[in-house]
Amino acid sequence: MSKKEEKIIQLPYSITVRDLAALLNNSAVQVIKILMSNGVMASINQTIDFDTAAVVATELGFEPLLEEDEEVVEDIGEMPLWRRVILKEDPSKLINRPPVITILGHVDHGKTTLLDAIRNTNVAGGEAGGITQHIGAYQITHKDRLITFMDTPGHAAFSSMRARGAQGADIVVLVVAADDGVQPQTREAANHAKAAQVPIIVALNKIDKADANLDRVKTQLSEIGLQPDEWEGNTFVMPVSAKGRIGLDDLLETILLVADNQMIKANPKGQCIGTVVEAKLEKSRGSLATLLVQNGTLKVGDVIVAGESTGKIKAMFDQRQKRISKAGPSTPVVVMGLNAVPEAGDLFQVVESDREGRTIVADRKAAREAKKNVKRATLEELFSRYKSGEAKELRLVLRADVQGSLEPITNELEKLSKDQKDISVKILHAEAGNITESDVMLAAASDAVVMGFDVNIDQGAQRLADAEGVSIRLYKIIYRLVEDVEKALKGLLEPEMVEKTIGKATVLATFKVSKGGTAAGCRISSGEFRRNAQVRVLRDSEELAKVEIASIRREKEDVRDVREGMECGITLKNYEAFEVGDILECFVIEKFGG
Ligand code: GDP
To answer: Nearest-CA neighbor of 192 among 458, 348, 331, 400?
Structure first.
């Protein structure tokens, strides 16, 4: 082993300070010191995330690498874990499975209508209308072959959910309305599909409309890298009318054609893994999750982990709510028995035992908490710097996975600015792609925060940020990013100051003091009095004065504070007209809410 290799250290997604110290052959105190010098306060038992642990490891001369932990590593833009599991299977055990399709597209372009139209005409196993309850996924037959369709949430701010939708699918059908053309979410969806290396078929919808302009849309598609097949490109563009049910058979035919050119296989006897399509809580049956099995066979009685939930499958239902005992690859099923409600897009997998399930879930929760705690501290620190500056502007450098995600973010942030009178958000730079050194340099030079949505940080950028004290915040949900900026803006506003009473005392006697003036001999009836605080003097509930404390003495000694039950002598600045029986209230001035 070379000298360099010896220094490489694999660190998990999260680790306690104690374990980190042991791994790095250093004392916990040393690790805590390094953390402190980097602005992180952590106790020996506290869990810190990889990024933070990596800073410590680097300072101690190691080269930290993120441990390949497949339970947790599930980065959007990489090949999804379930696919990697299938690739690891013995090729001779792989058999064909139905293709899984996700329909993506801009809002109102007809995704729901198309899904419904296909479901109603081709539902698997018989007559239309057989599926009474929506479970988020369903199978249809076309020419005696099964095709699985998966819903994805349509909300504008759920870009990362759509990304995950694309990740769970073998083929993305991108719906584009012929009268409206390529729109921001069209671009976003196309980019998600490309990132997940999933082929795209365009359903050019609403061709029945008078203002449909097919050639214009095809030109726009070419411009975003989806060159139509008839124009010597690689993308099938299928004209349809979801409402008029025109062209659906051709679309399904094309889906099968594209599927036949893909490796759409799985090992039904292999490791069981798949994706959570949707989940909800029901009063009588508890957590109900629709799962799409992608490899292996899921059985009643299996213990599974799905996101941060786990449990033994008590019962399983197919898309017609019929009880079933097992489900093979590409089959959507509703399962009962999880101890919590997982999120759509979470991966699920079968584990050995209840105990293993619980351990994995506990680890995931700890990792999430660790990430949250550490990042939040640095955010507050950074934003507090703005309070002192005279410029009432919060400057941001923005990065997002794709151009299509930048737009909704900048729109939301601009809205925030409008709502605030005295301060504004200024976006210095917004671009698609990972956070780079130049982003950090820009932020350092202009006192800005770097915010990333669904992106990673280049290694050099993280190091520079640490050195320069630039804060980088990563988000997986647009709403959270916007919410944090909003909170920061609130923190930036001149804080509202309030008086907080911290103690009360009764005047038992008054006496002259040697320096001149009068002191009140008091007993502290509740709370405490501090020398750097202020006092209200009350007589018969009337406030006579509000002044700073000059001194607090106990047995001839000046003290900093006195507590409930103690007796002491108090002198005030510019006030000495005490009378026996007066009430003194000690208060400090604090920012409202904290
Ligand atoms: P989504 O937001 O993409 O799910 O879009 P919807 O499926 O809700 O459709 C939006 C609107 O477009 C609805 O009023 C549909 O009736 C209408 N629509 C969908 N497909 C077609 C179509 O092929 N032709 C026409 N004329 N209208 C359609």
So the answer is: 400
Q: How far is the CA of 187 from the centre of ligand 1 (A)?
A: 19
103 lines ligand 1 (CB under 6 A): no
What is the CA(474)–ligand 1 centre distance, in A?
35
pLDDT of residue 74 exceeding 80, the answer is no
371 lines ligand 1 (CB under 6 A): no
In whole angstroms, give the CA distance from residue 38 to residue 36: 5
**Ligand 1 pocket member 108 (CB < 6 A):** yes
| Alpha-carbon distance values, 590 to 381, 443, 495 (Å) | 18, 31, 9
CA–CA dist 507, 502 (Å, integer): 17
Residues 152/175, Cβ–Cβ less than 8 Å: no
Residue 47's DSSP bridge partners are: 16
Say how many C-beta atoms besides its own lie within 10 A of residue 519's C-beta: 23
Residue minimizing CA distance to atom 25 of ligand 1: 206
Task: State whether the beta carbon of 154 lies less than 6 angstroms from ligand 1.
Answer: yes
pTM tops 0.85: no
Q: List pLDDT tens digits, range 23-52.
A: 898 888 888 888 877 777 777 777 787 778
Structure tokens at 49: 């995330």
E strands, 364-460, in order? 393-400, 424-432, 449-453
Question: Mean pLDDT for the chain?
Answer: 83
Residue entry with tokens 């699985």: 148
Query: Residue 417 is which amino acid?
Result: S
* 231-270: burial string, b at 16+ Cβ within 10 Å, e else: eeeebbbbbbbbeeebbbeebbebbeebbeeeebebbbeb
Q: How far is the CA of 235 from the centre of ligand 1 (A)?
A: 23
Ligand 1 mean position to 107 CA, how many Å?
9
Q: Cα 296 to the chain's mean position, in Å? A: 29
Determine phi and psi for 411, rounding to 5 degrees.
-60, -50
Place of tokens 């339970």: 71
| Max intra-chain CA distance, the chain | 105
Instruction: State the distance from the centre of ligand 1 to the C-alpha of 243, rounded, in angstroms.
Output: 7
Give the model confidence (pLDDT) of 523-575 as tens digits.
999 989 999 899 999 998 788 889 999 999 998 888 999 998 899 999 999 89
More confident residue, 505 or 39: 505
